[in-house]
Amino acid sequence: MTNFLTFLLLSTFLILSVHAETHHVNVADNVFIPQNINIQAGDTVRWKNLGLMNHNVASSDIDFIFRCAMGCDDTGGDGNPAGPEWVSEVTFHQPSNTIPYICEPHVGFGMAGSVSISTPEPDQIIIVDMDNGFSPQVVDVGLGSRIQFINQGGEHNIRADDDRFQCSESCRDDGIQGNYSPSGFLWSLYMIFDEVGTVNYHCQTPGHNETATIHVIDYPIFINGFEFNP
């Protein structure tokens, strides 16, 4: 019985951890721990300053510009080096081989790190194009699903009706300086949906009538054919 319960708990942990999206980096005095991390597009990195000195995290990649400490500059925070206990997050919606970053006052001491972002296998793909709008227009996905949005032509973006997100070449409030207004570039991004409910969204381009809906469902967990309610 004990072995079965252990298996049950481990199996449940593995199932619930499939869509883990937040990766933690400790900011110590003159070192990031871990120094280099690998994530998937759509994931979030959370830095926490545990050191005694003033630190920050500042990217040195022209395509992924962020500067954070007491929040990120791009989202109305203050990216200047600050003292202990600050926590700041950046969400990475596009793949990239390596994004280097530093602590500005301590880069001379070797305080640097990097984020590598791999291309995930999405749970759902939604196409945006000039002729057909969003395709499919309505989707049902499980809690924690990772959706890829692909703009295949035309000046588009995606904005939630309740204003929880606004994205095109990047997403508003993700901590990275970028463009989230309608864009004619062939942009692509990944987003994780971790709240049960209905998300209605649209394109903001004047004269466009594209609307769509995502239903996020908390699917039951089955182990050996039996439903399990944690």
Write a short abstract of this structure.
The chain is mostly beta strands and 230 residues long. It contains 1 helix and 21 strands. The chain has 2 domains: 117 residues, Cupredoxins -  blue copper proteins (Immunoglobulin-like), CATH 2.60.40.420; 100 residues, Cupredoxins -  blue copper proteins (Immunoglobulin-like), CATH 2.60.40.
What report would you give on this structure?
- The strands form five sheets. Strands 3-10-9-5-6-7 form a six-stranded mixed β-sheet, with no helix packed on it. Strands 13-19-18-15-16 form a five-stranded mixed β-sheet, with no helix packed on it. The protein has a four-stranded mixed β-sheet with strand order 2-1-4-8, with no helix packed on it.
- The chain contains one helix and 21 strands.
- It has one helix at residues 2-16, and strands at residues 22-28, 31-33, 36-40, 44-49, 57-59, 67-69, 71-72, 87-91, 96-102, 112-118, 124-129, 133-135, 138-142, 145-151, 158-160, 166-167, 188-193, 197-202, 211-217, 221-223, 226-228.
- With 230 residues, the chain is mostly beta strands.
- Strand 1 (22-28) and strand 2 (31-33) form a beta hairpin.
- The chain folds into two domains: 2-118, Cupredoxins -  blue copper proteins (Immunoglobulin-like, Sandwich), CATH 2.60.40.420; 124-223, Immunoglobulin-like.
